[in-house]
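Batch queue: ligand-bound targets. Current item pairs a single chain with zinc ion. No template structures supplied; prediction is de novo from sequence plus SMILES. Inputs echoed for audit trail.
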Amino acid sequence: MKSPFDNAEFAHLVAWRHKLHQFPELSGEEAETAREVVSFLADTRPDQVLTGLGGHGVALVYNGAEAGPTVLLRCELDALQIHEISDLPYRSRVDGKAHMCGHDGHMTMMAAVARHISRQRPARGRAVLLFQPAEETAHGAEAVLADPKFAEITPDYAFAIHNMPGLPLAHIAVAAGQITCASMGLCIELTGKTAHASMPETGISPATAVARIIDNIKTFEAGDVVAKGFRRVTLTSVQMGKPVFGITPGSAEIRMTLRTPESNAILGLLDNVLEMVGEVAAQERLSVAHSTHNFFRACINDADAAAAFDEAANRMNLSRVTDYVPIRGAEDFGLFGSCSKSALLFIGSGIDRPMVHNPDYDFPDELIPVGAELFIGVLDQLLGMPRPGDPSLDGIK
Ligand SMILES: [Zn+2]
Ligand SMILES: [Zn+2]
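Prediction returned. Tokens below.
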């Protein structure tokens, strides 16, 4: 695999990825990671550095010599509340937190792009490298777009790459149109009354209601593949009563995730689920409250932006997986489509790699130059930024 990065530079980038991996920070708490990004990339001499974007977001801006479009490339700063199971020398040093979505790898791909730009500026327009906060909670993109500082860098085009276990290594999946579903977290709180375990009839236990609700949510599901009419309700957590023997439960919390292809359709699904929950709660004499969380809008790729990714992949002779998108998963990158021509591309992390968000997942370093070169290919088409000669990275595994 050819790459615009020589072996020493690749090793330097990999070492940085491993450093990021050891010090993960959760969504909204990425202060140190943001500082590390600014410091690691200072020698790439960005023309402008915006910090504190929508929280801890960082944008590095590289100007071309002539006027032209603004092209934003996005990666994510945040890690997950998962305890890493691994004997890697660079495993997370923070208990209960880990980069289990590969955002450490995405940041490193972006660092590789910055290194390339420091040698080969855009001919026109501006390249904006955005290190976005809080992707995992669906708050980051929204907060960045709402930040007044973002007006200075509002892009004409926006691009993101996400690694994807289950796809062959370095194979890509990209298309115009729908790429991800919309999703929303729903928490249902049921409240009754505890009782002495010898006299359960004097209490109001939510147990039957919990069982009925779990059973009923299946009736709202439709379709297996993402197409019009697809709906999915996934139970993620149930908590009821205390871990004791002498008291019957007086309250319960049920958490679930709702998914639909269209962002607006999820509100209809939410209404349907809440109506069912309300009926069950009334029949079981329980009071009910609910809250919604982490609303990810669907990600829809613009045709021109997707074509730019396509062309970049063609130049690299990358293999494609054609029937992969749209996926059921969600990504907050879709919001950038509200202000720009945007596209998200999935790149395979290998068939046998654990899925992202699993405790034994790790980003494959081989993807760093591949993802960086895809981004560089896009910048070349839109801003005129040809690659230098191609020192080979053959032999690096
Ligand atoms: Zn994730
Ligand atoms: Zn992710």
